Amino acid sequence: QVHLVESGGGLVEAGDSLTLSCAASGRTDSRDAMAWFRQAPGKAREFLAAVRRNGESPRYADAVRGRFTISTDIAKSMVYLQMNDLNPNDTAIYYCAVEIAPVSLSIYGRRYNYWGRGTQVTVSS
């Protein structure tokens, strides 16, 4: 069992940066995948980034590569999403997710076993 709690969301202006945090409790296995997704109003859930719990093999969606950075702190069981140069299209609820020991990191939400409740990010123009 894994319990995930996101934090760090808020209201920012276009061009600002924001770092989201996700605290993971319960199972700790360096092979697990930790990922960030988001869902904007009226839109489908969107994959953003994933990484092994030990920080290896980060994978990014094309839409955010170069602007978002995923990282982990294995000692603290945390995963972070640093977001730069935010724009109003980044407004969404951001979710942290874990997939148990996958062979490869997935972009598909259905593969992930555990989810947090999300944190709201709102970017004003």
Termini distance? Answer: 40 Å
Question: Strand share of the residues?
Answer: over 45%
Largest sheet: 7 strands, mixed
Low-confidence residue ranges: none
Form type:
globular
Mean pLDDT: 95
Order of helices and strands: EEEEEEEEEEE
As a percent range, the share of helical residues equals under 10%
**Number of helices, where a helix is a run of at least 4 consecutive DSSP H or I residues:** 0
Strands, helices and their partners?
Blueprint: E1 2-7, E2 10-13, E3 18-26, E4 33-39, E5 46-52, E6 59-60, E7 68-73, E8 78-83, E9 92-99, E10 114-115, E11 119-124
Parallel strand pairs: 2-11
Antiparallel strand pairs: 1-3, 3-8, 4-5, 4-9, 5-6, 7-8, 9-10, 9-11
Structure description:
There is one protein chain. With 125 residues, the chain is mainly β. Helix content is 0%, strand content 50%. The protein is built from no helices and 11 strands. The strands form 2 sheets. Strands 2, 4, 5, 6, 9, 10 and 11 form a 7-stranded mixed sheet that branches. The chain has a 4-stranded antiparallel sheet with strand order 1-3-8-7, with no helix packed on it. A hairpin with a 6-residue loop joins strand 4 and strand 5 (46-52). It is globular, with a radius of gyration of 13 Å. The N and C termini lie far apart (40 Å).
